[in-house]
Design goal:
Two copies of one chain form a homodimer. By secondary structure, chain A is of the alpha+beta class. Chain A has ten helices and 18 strands. In chain A, the strands form five sheets. Chain A has a six-stranded mixed sheet with strand order 4-3-2-1-5-6, covered by helices on one side. A four-stranded mixed sheet of chain A has the order 8-9-12-18, with helices on one face. In chain A, helix 7 crosses helix 8 and helix 9 runs antiparallel to helix 10. The first copy, chain A, is elongated and about 80 Å long.
Chain lengths: 397, 397
Amino acid sequence: MIDFTIQNQKLDQVPVLLKRYGIELWLTLGAETSMKPEPVLDFILGLEMTWLSAFILTARNERIAIVGRFDAENVRRMGDYNEIIPYDQDFFPLLLQVLERLDPASIALNYSEHDVSADGLSHGTWLKLKKGLAGTSYAERLLSSEDVVRTLRGQKTPAEVERIRTAAHTTEEIVAEIGRGIMLGMTEEGLYAMVQGLMSKRGVTPSWDPCPNISVGAASVAGHTLSDARFKVETSMLVHMDLGVRQNEYVSDMQRVWYVLRPGESKLPEEVKKAFEDVRGAILAAADVLKPGVEGWKLDQAARDTIVTAGYAEFQHAAGHSLGRAVHDGGNLLGPRWARYGQSPYHQVEAGNVFTLELGVPVPGFGFVGLEEDVLVREDGLEWLSYPQEQIFLIKG
Amino acid sequence: MIDFTIQNQKLDQVPVLLKRYGIELWLTLGAETSMKPEPVLDFILGLEMTWLSAFILTARNERIAIVGRFDAENVRRMGDYNEIIPYDQDFFPLLLQVLERLDPASIALNYSEHDVSADGLSHGTWLKLKKGLAGTSYAERLLSSEDVVRTLRGQKTPAEVERIRTAAHTTEEIVAEIGRGIMLGMTEEGLYAMVQGLMSKRGVTPSWDPCPNISVGAASVAGHTLSDARFKVETSMLVHMDLGVRQNEYVSDMQRVWYVLRPGESKLPEEVKKAFEDVRGAILAAADVLKPGVEGWKLDQAARDTIVTAGYAEFQHAAGHSLGRAVHDGGNLLGPRWARYGQSPYHQVEAGNVFTLELGVPVPGFGFVGLEEDVLVREDGLEWLSYPQEQIFLIKG
């Protein structure tokens, strides 16, 4: 009934990654996860838990769950844990028994100052754990699981790639329908409602909220912005959208741009055409550099140099981010080496990673030209999961 | 476009609660909240944030937001924050400036060992905050916001109550359709799919996942369990469901029970009838005690005494929990004074609280009889938000 294909595949990756980082035991804790999700549980469980629960995975591929009695039956049926310990009252004595039995030299926990996706442990749960382990030596064996989480999320399995590809294709169908639906006089709010309807018709939801982010004309602010009824589609204007869909739990994230022709106008104004080609050129420059082993910042640098050389200001964000179950899927960033991004641009790209490539420039008097594509890193180079936009879509005004 | 009615009403409650608990400043931190929600932000913001963000609320009703540049426009349009500080690079210097200006004697943060809904601060963010405040005296003024969060979530505003009432009514419509849809030979899986369809038809989603929890006959396990294809509807059997819907972001949570008559049978077997009346009696006993000022455990005690006196084993859970935006809405619990529940059964019930009242008993040879109702606490007593089930629904076998 529930499909655990993803969790089966991800759990098989875990022992390899634990060995790679020299971690003997990885402990994920969560409670009331429908209200407060622990992002790691999507990969190693695929179920919601009510009471405080522990999922223990080891480098020797032991898989142990300590869960409230009412949650135990679901974990049993899920089938991936070979030891399930249900409890009614006291959680920590059971956890201690397991730790004593396995006696791991290192215990990795999901906290991180650098990566939100590896920071699912709440501070209150940390305090409870410290009390639960008080007087034992386990309290000194705790460390961050951020390397494991980054690479586990990053190395997409075949089933994960297929889901992202499907989400990207659905987005392209929607983009084609948007092109037929853009009419003079429509407001950003009207466009937003139209896109929501196109998603809903296909049974998919927006990748984030509020999505799409729409910018109509030069006065509108491009960014993660609520749509605005003040900005209306007129001729000689760019319409820009940042949009994506969540389909079967995985997401796409793309930017597309349209131009509304004046009556009698048949081709793009020069400055709009140049902006599009420069943005596209910068994205292709980053794509050229993308292969296993390269550090993320080098892709950003390639895109950034191209656009600056073409005469534009630097963009104030990363040229790409991981994409998967989340829009910002944690871990590796294709970003500049700025303090804000910490270590995230320094990790090496690996085969199986999926990234966005994205940037844009304002065109004074017309609006915003921004592009964003979704790409898979393969051993032999890059595969486009979205069909890159090759020219601005023209709307008859 | 986005409706901020709930956030407007909740933010007006905040200064009163901060004064009540002697807290000068309440600091909520969150990042990538679509992946890792901070439950408090649903009440004080109603938007998703990408970069690390701070929402600062004070007893003097100052409302200050420090957010990434691309998130700032949305917070501006939301309209409830009178100072919005956008940033590109460094977050903590800006936070420090605000703290120095306001110089609060106490700074409440969302961590709690007792209440998941008040524990949205991740441990990694805590570590970053400690570094950001290092060398200042603010690091010693930190405390838990759990009292504020509990009462803020607990004191439902009129708009919140209306949404829960609507979700309960929708659930009752679905329950009526389920009664017409239960057929001999249907499996739990088939029933699950049917209920999912009935929710989807109305544009609502299940309150939790997997929901509904279905128990068909005596061999099936009642609890938070995946449906099972092995258990089929037969005559002389109880069908039990725990179900609820999320509608306009608020949820219902109810249990209902059906009995499948044998050919020629026109009324319930005695032991099934007795079980239903005893369960219903225990819920009414708890309802009798529910009024502002009473501690939660006293309701549990009333229900528990009633069912034990009637000759059943004690149920291994609380007789009720808070209900609202989440199914287990944190804070007050109508539970026994067991170690597992910590302080949560000792809080006083307040007007505006919404609870479930729930329990059930197995009937050997037939299945499970469980009931769950949703109730609002008013100054003058109790209001049923669900229509309490008065007799077992009969299905013609």
